[in-house]
Amino acid sequence: MELYNGNSMFFRNQKPKQLTFEDRLASLKQFGFTTHTEAGDHCRVMRDGCATVVADLGGGKVGMGKPGVLLGSEIAMLVNRGYQMFLRAPSGKEAPALATHLKALHAFEEDLREAHAAEDRPGRRARTPADRPCAFAR
Q1: Are strands 50-58 and 34-37 parallel, antiparallel or unpaired?
Q2: With contact defined as beta carbons under 8 Å apart, do 57 and 63 qualify?
Q3: Which of 19, 22, 46, 111 is most solvent-facing, going by the fewest CB within 10 Å?
Q4: Rounded to an integer, what distance in angstroms lies between the CA atom of residue 73 and that of residue 126?
Q5: What is the DSSP string of the chain?
């Protein structure tokens, strides 16, 4: 009797490859994101005027900071003042949030989430920036 896989007739599932922090950053570049290494195990991920900080938690796990809009070299977070949204940088610099900022931030968050999910489930195809509908088509 001929045996498969050497010792037994049963097929074993392949163990998923544990992705490193560098592997995850390289896959983000495929989705149109640019990365800039910061101090230690932190990296800034940017695209279309939006950014977030990604940290290596070890063991193939990644921690993501809250995404925001770039004001100069700082990542500004959205602040609701009741009547309008504002962007506030850590230094205290503020600017009114325009519709273009909000659309870009929404697309950035969505695509970052999809890119992160695609790394965890390699069999699924994630959207690329070319798949995203044009904001001016409406």
Answers
A1: unpaired
A2: yes
A3: 22
A4: 29
A5: ---TTTT-SSPPPPPPP---HHHHHHHHHHTT-EEEE-STTEEEEEETTEEEEEEEEETTEEEE---EEEETTEEEEEEE-SSSEEEE-TTS-EEEPPHHHHHHHHHHHHHHHHHHHHHH-TTSPPP-GGGSPPGGG-
Q: Over the Cα atoms of the chain, what is R_g? A: 20
The string of pLDDT tens digits covering residues 59-76 is 778 888 999 999 999 999
What count of Cα atoms within 13 Å lies in the side-chain half-sphere of residue 13? 3
What is the tens place of the pLDDT at every residue in 69-121? 999 999 999 999 888 999 999 999 999 999 999 999 999 999 998 887 765 55
**Cross-strand pairs, 51:** 46, 68
Sorting pLDDT into bands at 50, 70 and 90, what band is 49? very high
Whether the full predicted model's pTM is greater than 0.85, yes or no, is no
β-bridge partners, 63 = 55
Query: Which pairing describes strands 85-88 and 42-47: parallel, antiparallel, or unpaired?
Result: unpaired
